[in-house]
Amino acid sequence: MEYISTRGKVGKIGFIDAFMMGLADDGGLLVPSEIPQISADNLKKWQDLSYQELVLEIFSYYTNNEIPQEDLKAMVEASYSTFRDPEVTPVRRFGDDLYLLELFHGPTFAFKDIALQFIGNFYSYVAEKQGKKIHILGATSGDTGASAIQGVKGKEGIKICILFPTGKVSKVQELQMTTVQDDNVLNLSVDGNFDDCQGMIKELFADLDFKSANHLAAINSINFVRILAQTVYYFYSYFQVSKANGGNLGKVNFSVPTGNFGDIFAGYLAKRMGLPVGKLILATNENNILERFIEEGVYMPGDFRITYSPSMDIQVASNFERYLYYVLGEDAEEVSRLMAQFKSEGEISISPDALKLVQSEFAAHGVDGQECLDTISKFKTEHDYLLDPHSACGVAAVYECAEEGEISISLATAHPAKFDEAIRLTGIEQSFPPEIAALFEKPQRQVLVDGKLEDVVAQLEKFYNA
Ligand SMILES: *Cc1c(COP(=O)(O)O)cnc(C)c1O
């Protein structure tokens, strides 16, 4: 398996090179040169594998044999040993046709840990094997930063800098990032929103001289390895639900709380690999650019809104380009043309035929604030289960988009303790897990910067070269 760019000017490169490149050098995103097809036989054989075993099976289609099996196995074991649930991503049943896939049992209580625990170990591995310096640079709407920092704090040969929007992440998210005391961690609190942070990161990664001089490495979902690690739980949860239904399950819907389109793109990839996925239900909040794309075929950012689900407060979804590549029949020239148009005009649209294809694969629902809170309250009353505001968007979208009799798996992307600001508005009082309660006692480390690129660059050069 090799990797190419959605804009056609990179490749073919290997797995480790694709991991290290992050953003493709031509400004596009890396994708596998072809999507591997999983046979029905293998799908059957995989039903009883543990989560870790399944990771190894799925990765074997993508790693190009570049990592000795025992090394990969050791990394996978280490990455998921930090999870609080032995199943890593357990599934819970609610009634006949709704399942929640709990993705928040890792160190920072959000789904980002599933890929980033592995990626932290993988960077460490490459740093050691190739004697490379690795300087991670990432932007976060809250969860990626916390998770990436947990994945690499204190690790030899690695430094990490995270940009987050000042005052636009939850208190617990901020504490998870800023209370880490290791010297290889720098938190930049940026006066702006997530799109500003992500825009600066993409600009710095696209400056190839700066990227190589500073040994930049990516942990955002522009990195294909994040997507790959996230495909695993689509398979794993499908198998659990299938077994709960006597082993003969047909298609299942997945509902995915969406911001950057990374997680739902992993679901799309799982489907293209052969997993029997029905509808991919795209759940958003009021920042609903993607809902409008799926309904109208027009991709155009609206005004940025602050919501109860801050990790989804994103207008420009970086993984959207990966999907666009497939919708346009893997036509890299057309992708390049549209992305250039998006840059100059701030808006693109696709043909009616392409839109039909999109609508055959996705349904979408934008959940407003009141609906989000109502869903949390209703689910608590009916099932005695507390959803976090992101997971509540996923469940609300199932209520809206799934047909009678269809089975849906809704992704629970975070633990409610991370978003108590929203939970309190429902009048529900929760108690914090001890790991989260302990954060409030710790001192914070962060540097405030205004939204100017040159100030961020100055901080980075000082930190990476120290
Ligand atoms: C990151 C995040 C999302 C959105 O995931 P994308 O891959 O960016 O679409 C949803 N919920 C939570 C809790 C998150 O942290």
UniProtKB/TrEMBL annotation:
CDD domains recorded:
Thr-synth_2
Q: Which cofactor does it need?
A: pyridoxal 5'-phosphate
- GO biological process annotation, one example: threonine biosynthetic process
List residues of the Threonine synthase N-terminal domain: 2-80
Q: In the record, which positions carry N6-(pyridoxal phosphate)lysine?
A: 112
- Domain Tryptophan synthase beta chain-like PALP: residue ranges: 92-408
Q: Might you give the EC number(s) for this enzyme? A: 4.2.3.1
Its name, as the record gives it, is Threonine synthase
Which source organism does the UniProt entry give? Paenibacillus soyae
